[in-house]
Amino acid sequence: EPELTGDFAALMVWADAIRRLKVRANAETATDAAAARQFGAEGIGLVRSEHMFFDAVRIAAVREMILADDRAGREQALAKMLVMQREDFVQLFSIMEGLPVTFRLLDPPLHEFLPHTAEDVEAVSKATGLDAAKLLARAKELHEVNPMLGHRGCRLGVAYPEIYEMQVRAILEAAIEVVASGKAAPIPEIMHPLVSKGLEMKFLRELTDRVAKQVMAEKGVTIDYRVGTMVELPRAAIRADDLAEHAEFFSFGTNDLTQTTFGISRDDSGRFLGAYIDKGIFERDPFVTLDQEGVGDLIRIAVERGRKTRPDIKLGICGEHGGDPASIDFCEKVGLDYVSCSPFRVPIARLAAAQAAIGEREKDR
Ligand code: PEP
Ligand code: MG
Which atom of ligand 1 is nearest to the CA of 319? Predict the structure, then answer.
């Protein structure tokens, strides 16, 4: 069990008394959520809901869903996924004891869940009983030249609403189960990934509210949930005023926002970035420390336009930069409400947030 003790714990108490920014953690397992609490996280800022399905047994249900021929078939597989997600979400809510938990709905392109080589297909088919030829054909059909710019994020929720409907139901049912067991009432935040347009957000918001209302009516329990969006595409930042009409919070996905602003792959940037850093063109790796110029400008624009539409909109960051001290300093300056980072970076983030707050106060003198 990780724990903060002695002088370090004392230092944290001072830091907490000074900082303005809240600090949350990115977590999807019980272990990570518990570690986050130990390190002082004030909520979960990002549950990557798809991670719960990469497990060998669970992925079978996803594959079954992807292979289904029609909506009825997909719904049958989704019913299995619902049970699993609900269980996971109950666990996260229980560990977080009434602190906010932000669930990001399914993000990766569906083909990532399918086996691709003939051998893998054979092995999966043997293990799950799913038809090998169909698996391979579907993997080929779903293949995309640029999957990161393709059928992923909320585009899945628009094309296959039943997937997001299942996830919203799982979140609400889990929250209701936790309330029924007498534990602290959860504050679920439902977050849509890769949104770029107001009308897209409107569609997703309506889907979310419709399902949430239905579940609450079925159970006769009201849950105080919120709906929001990631801001991880330049267009989302520029049209933040439109998105804020239908979103109660924004969370900056600076991994994708850095990728799409520079047009540099977050996965393969190592091939040339070293040369840029050697030649002084880049001072630092923009995927580690937030680029305060281009990407930073987009964040400033989004904060300003989001607040123009909805003055009390809640603003956070959940990309890797949320645990980087120089980036946290920027988050303080631009006026975000919280940062979210991996559990083990929470103590550093608490310190960095305090340091940033001191810097801002000095400036005002
Ligand atoms: C991001 O894009 O910054 C983000 C937090 O989401 P993911 O890393 O899962 O794409
Ligand atoms: Mg992202």
Answer: 3
The Cβ of residue 277 has, within 10 Å, a number of other Cβ atoms equal to 13
Give the β-pairing of 338-341 and 22-26: parallel
Question: Looking at this predicted complex, what is its ipTM?
Answer: 0.99
Query: What is the distance in A from the centroid of ligand 1 to the CA of 251?
Result: 10
**At residue 47, what are phi and psi to the nearest 5 degrees?**
-105, 110
State the Cα–Cα distance between residues 264 and 151, nearest whole angstrom: 19
Is residue 2 over pLDDT 80? no
What is the H or E stretch that residue 227 is in? strand 226-231
232 Cβ below 6 A of ligand 1: yes
- Cα distances from 228 to residues 190, 200, 218, 337, in angstroms, run 6, 12, 24, 14
Does 254 contact ligand 1 (Cβ within 6 A)?
Answer: yes
Q: What is the pTM (predicted TM-score) of this model?
A: 0.96
Q: Is 108 near ligand 1, meaning CB less than 6 Å away?
A: no
3-class SS of residue 7: helix
